[in-house]
Amino acid sequence: MLRTPSGGAGSSGAAGADGRLMSIGTVLNQLREEFPEVTISKIRFLESEGLVEPRRTPSGYRKFSTEDIERLAYVLRMQRDHYLPLRVIREHLDALARGERVQLPAPGLPAPDAGDGQGGAAAPGGAAEGPVVPVFERSTAARIGRAELLAAAEVTEGDLAEWESYGLLAPHSDGAFDADSVLVAKLVTDLGRFGLEPRHLRAIKAAADRQAGLVEQVVAPLRRHRNPQTRAHAEATARELATLSVRLHAALVQAALRTRSH
Question: What angle in degrees, to the nearest 10, is found between the helix axes of 181-192 and 146-153?
Answer without folding.
Answer: 40
